[in-house]
Design brief:
Elements lengths: L2 H4 L1 E2 L10 H11 L3 E6 L2 E7 H5 L2 H4 L5 H10 L7 E2 L10 H11 L3 E6 L2 E7 H11 L6 E6 L6 H11 L4 E6 L7 H4 L2 E5 L4 H10 L3 E6 L1
């Protein structure tokens, strides 16, 4: 999975000399929380809703609403933006993007190709991808304790093949300690309504069913 599959292409961008007031309005109208800042076609920064709302001008609580709006209208984005932001390219994997966001405690990444902003990927996009990957809202979800050995997943798939049941998604987690035996180390979502038949086939094959949900 690559960033280009899930990014928002051709995102709304803003000039560094645009005022904070206009930037806030642009975010509100378009229901977005961050804007890449572009000057002469090149990415020079990124500004978030949090940057704008926590700028010194906004935090000056002793100001009247009229004084505050005046300051917001006069203060340019370049004074509060994050300069030279971390970026990814369209062929960066989703996993890499997630690690970059996590390690740097950021919620969005401009996607740059040949020096130009071509998209933006956010934490919400990653959550959506996770939900899609796990097949949520489809079929029946089985959490299993599967022996950690070569061929175990193949054997599991063979059980469903014999049952003529399609596997929607399957995710295996790296075992940590002994608790995984109680909590399970594999989540498989399958296209069936016959839970009893599946459970019986799994248990008969020595696979422990830890949890079932629709």
């Amino acid at each position: 999975m690559f960033v280009k599959w899930k990014m928002t292409p051709n995102p709304i961008v803003i000039d560094p000399d645009v005022s904070l007031l206009e930037a806030l309005h642009l975010m509100k109208v378009n229901n977005i929380r961050r804007l890449p800042v572009v000057a002469h076609g090149n990415l020079v920064g990124i500004v978030t809703e949090k940057d704008l709302r926590e700028s010194p001008s906004v935090r000056a609580s002793s100001l009247s609403i009229y004084e505050l709006n005046y300051l917001l209208a006069k203060t340019p984005v370049k004074e509060v933006m994050t300069r030279d932001p971390i970026t990814v390219d369209p062929d960066t994997t989703i996993e890499e993007a997630a690690v970059i966001m996590r390690d740097n405690q950021i919620s969005g990444l401009p996607v740059v190709e040949d020096g130009k902003v071509v998209g933006i990927i956010t934490e919400t996009d990653l959550f959506d991808m996770l939900v899609k990957l796990l097949g949520f809202r489809r079929g029946v979800r089985f959490t299993l304790f599967l022996e950690n050995r070569v061929g175990a997943i193949a054997d599991l798939a063979e059980i469903f093949r014999k049952l003529n049941i399609n596997i929607i998604s399957i995710v295996a987690f790296e075992p940590v300690g002994r608790e995984y035996e109680k909590e399970g180390n594999v989540v498989v979502r399958v296209d069936t309504e016959d839970i009893d038949k599946v459970s019986s086939a799994l248990e008969s094959s020595g696979i422990k069913v830890v949890h079932i949900s629709r």
